[in-house]
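Ligand-bound model needed. S-adenosylmethionine.
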Amino acid sequence: MGSEGGQGTGREPDEAAGGGAERPAFDTSVAHIARVYDYWLGGKDNFAADRAAAEQAIAAYPDIVFSVRANRAFLARAVRYMVGEAGIRQFLDIGTGIPATSNTHEVAQSVAPESRVAYVDNDPVVLAHARALLTSGPHGVTSYLDADLRDTGRVLSAAAETLDFSQPIAIMLMAILQHVDNADNPYAIVAALLDAVPAGSYLALSHPASDIEAQAQGELARRLNQTMAEKVTLRDRAQVARFFDGLDLVEPGLVRVPEWRPASEAEASSPAGLWGGVGRKS
Ligand SMILES: C[S@@+](CC[C@H](N)C(=O)[O-])C[C@H]1O[C@@H](n2cnc3c(N)ncnc32)[C@H](O)[C@@H]1O
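Prediction:
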């Protein structure tokens, strides 16, 4: 995808993602989190408005570029744990993002090729990349749904076309719930998703923190909220822990994302302003 674009640039939707003849137009003059995040990760799927917002955020909190990499690494470690140690074979990954390193299906299917992954995002640029998310190995399945996390009924009914809800499922909410403000009751959304899956299922979640590098991250959020389409609500550790209510937290619990089962001490000590954890429904 080109990195320069004018207002109203459109993309053909991916046929395999259920797209029809419609061309989803998107306004490149407004920054969106999927593209801002892509810029922080060093990707090329972003436009001038995204880069400007991303740079303003970097100026407020320079460690954001380490933070997002640590988040992707946490995602990969959490998936590897859930497939390799917990025996999970089904994933509902909501807030997929633009494909980057170690996408959920790649990590899961590298351990268990039969793994099934249902991806969900509401950004048209992610939809335009859906083909890259649907490159499952011959033994597994991936699907992509263009939907809003807040519409849990639609998310769950569409996911049921790919996933078997009588068997354990890992629900993944990586760096997305900060875009659900309190008025939309994020705790009820997570509870509705967890209600739909059987015992033995997992929740893997990361969330930008209001109590790590509080001043710098607060300023980052303030700047993003002035320009970006999706607003940001930072939450503290106790508020993030509430998403795991009723679940058994896997060791080491809710920690800064690089401290969750790191591969090395160097990895554990990376700067990162997100809380992350994995919980099991019993
Ligand atoms: C910061 S990115 C995180 C991407 C990926 N989960 C990761 O951790 O690397 C957040 C993603 O959530 C998506 N998103 C934000 N709000 C959403 C909503 N209400 N419904 C569905 N997707 C949403 C954005 O489009 C974006 O792709």
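Residues 64-84 form the longest helix (21 residues).
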